[in-house]
Backbone:
């Protein structure tokens, strides 16, 4: 698979500067792959954290709703 990315002028310059940090033992292809997969891993972690936060919020919301219903039943 081949991936092509369009950078703005500033982004391209930043990426070129970043690539100067490439370890000499890595060829360019493997360096680019590592950058890509590192980014994928970070995005996956961020999405997992968002899903967990959403689950927690929904659980808390459900618990509060159940507490309100119980309070209403006790009052009636």
Residues:
């Amino acid at each position: 698979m081949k991936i092509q990315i369009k950078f703005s002028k500033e982004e391209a310059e930043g990426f070129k500067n970043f690539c100067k940090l490439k370890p000499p033992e890595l060829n360019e292809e493997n360096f680019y792959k590592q950058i890509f997969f590192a980014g994928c891993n970070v995005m996956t972690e961020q999405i997992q954290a968002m899903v967990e936060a959403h689950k927690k919020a929904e659980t808390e919301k459900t618990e509060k709703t159940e507490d309100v219903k119980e309070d209403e039943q006790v009052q009636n």
